[in-house]
């Protein structure tokens, strides 16, 4: 608990632990995902501080005892597994996430847009870097790969479909693969739409998903390489996860997204409340991330393609399928 001013552990007590911190790819059906199968620079001016320790996640089992002496907030059980997630603002509005398994000291980073903010965060805590996880090939998610890999010897993990586009990739994963991060089982969800090879990483035991540019708070990624149908299917996969799942997305776009969301569903009370909350957070330079699956289902128009008010606002015929509804919502947002 040395240097953490605001940190919280997640306790992955309901899942089997892997003994090897460095276990490579494991293939197989993720038994925990039946429903899914089926169905700041550092911008110091913007954010005030370079990094913020995010309070994750949840205790899956049992009652957590809260140690909250101000310096260290942590849910604890008798089980030893815990993962800390630190949000690191990069570039203009990207977020990278540093993952730290407290038990083994293993450290990873998700989507390092640039190396320096990550190196700064690691050096503050005298940590090494073992893994780099990329959700997709765009530069603002992989820009730090090679420098970090060269400095720390970290292994780069990414989508098999993007193995030719992800700098320095070592471990290529695909849908249905599970990969172990220091004993935390990570499920790979292929989520094409924004890019053809986009993947999300679901840390089931920690109740956390890293969604890159597929799912944002109150929006989804632009369709650069995929169809609305693909994006619809990808989003449905993600929202099949438990409502309390924390969503760590690639950008801080929530405030601007809320303006569009309110324009198409002005009568959504939860959305009105969340938009006000997000405004308040951003006014204090606090990230709106993570959000949760439950909140997004209530508020995100791209997950509400069934909603009569949205369809009415955008004059979408009743007989349109939800993927076509998503297409029209996406077009409307692109022109908003
Ligand atoms: Zn992108």
TrEMBL record:
PANTHER family: HYDROXYACYLGLUTATHIONE HYDROLASE (PTHR43705), HYDROXYACYLGLUTATHIONE HYDROLASE GLOB (PTHR43705:SF1)
Keyword line: Hydrolase, Metal-binding, Zinc
NCBIfam families to which the protein is assigned, alphabetical: GSH_gloB
Family membership noted in the UniProt record: Belongs to the metallo-beta-lactamase superfamily. Glyoxalase II family.
Pathway participation: Secondary metabolite metabolism; methylglyoxal degradation; (R)-lactate from methylglyoxal: step 2/2
Domain Metallo-beta-lactamase: 93-251
GO molecular function terms noted in the UniProt entry: hydroxyacylglutathione hydrolase activity; metal ion binding
Source taxonomy: Eukaryota, Viridiplantae, Streptophyta, Embryophyta, Tracheophyta
Name of the protein in its database record: hydroxyacylglutathione hydrolase
Names of the cofactor(s): Fe(2+); Zn(2+); Fe(3+)
The species this protein was found in: Eleusine coracana subsp. coracana
Broad EC category: hydrolase
Single GO BP term: methylglyoxal catabolic process to D-lactate via S-lactoyl-glutathione
Any Pfam family: HAGH_C
The organism's place on the tree of life at top rank: Eukaryota
Record-listed E.C. numbers: 3.1.2.6
Catalytic activity: an S-(2-hydroxyacyl)glutathione + H2O = a 2-hydroxy carboxylate + glutathione + H(+)
InterPro entries membership: Clx_II_MBL, Glyoxalase_II_hydrolase, HAGH_C, Hydroxyacylglutathione_Hdrlase, Metallo-B-lactamas, RibonucZ/Hydroxyglut_hydro
């Amino acid at each position: 608990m040395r240097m953490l001013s605001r940190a919280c552990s997640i306790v992955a007590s309901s899942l089997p632990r892997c003994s090897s911190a460095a276990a490579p790819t494991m293939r197989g059906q993720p038994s925990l995902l039946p429903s899914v199968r089926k169905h700041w620079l550092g911008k110091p001016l913007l954010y005030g501080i370079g990094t913020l320790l995010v309070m994750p996640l949840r205790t899956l089992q049992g009652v957590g005892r809260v140690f909250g002496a101000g310096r260290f907030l942590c849910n604890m059980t008798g089980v030893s597994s815990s993962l800390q997630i630190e949000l690191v603002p990069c570039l203009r509005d990207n977020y990278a996430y540093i993952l730290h398994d407290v038990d083994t000291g293993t450290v990873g980073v998700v989507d390092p847009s640039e190396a320096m903010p990550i190196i700064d965060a690691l050096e503050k805590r005298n940590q090494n870097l073992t893994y780099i996880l990329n959700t997709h090939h765009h530069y603002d998610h992989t820009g730090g790969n090679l420098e970090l890999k060269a400095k720390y010897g970290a292994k780069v993990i990414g989508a098999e479909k993007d193995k030719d586009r992800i700098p320095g990739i070592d471990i290529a994963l695909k849908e249905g693969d599970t990969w172990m991060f220091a004993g935390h089982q990570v499920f790979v969800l292929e989520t094409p739409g924004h890019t053809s090879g986009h993947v999300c990483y679901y840390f089931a035991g920690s109740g956390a998903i890293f969604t890159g540019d597929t799912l944002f708070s109150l929006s989804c990624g632009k369709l650069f390489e995929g169809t609305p149908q693909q994006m619809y299917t990808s989003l449905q996969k993600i929202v099949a996860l438990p409502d309390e799942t924390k969503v760590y997305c690639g950008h801080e776009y929530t405030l601007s997204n809320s303006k569009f969301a309110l324009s198409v569903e002005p009568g959504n009370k939860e959305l009105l409340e969340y938009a006000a909350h997000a405004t308040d957070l951003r006014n204090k330079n606090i990230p709106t991330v993570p959000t949760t699956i439950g909140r997004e289902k209530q508020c995100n128009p791209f997950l509400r393609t069934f909603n009569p008010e949205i369809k009415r606002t955008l004059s979408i015929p009743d007989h349109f399928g939800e993927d076509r509804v998503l297409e029209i919502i996406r077009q409307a947002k692109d022109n908003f």
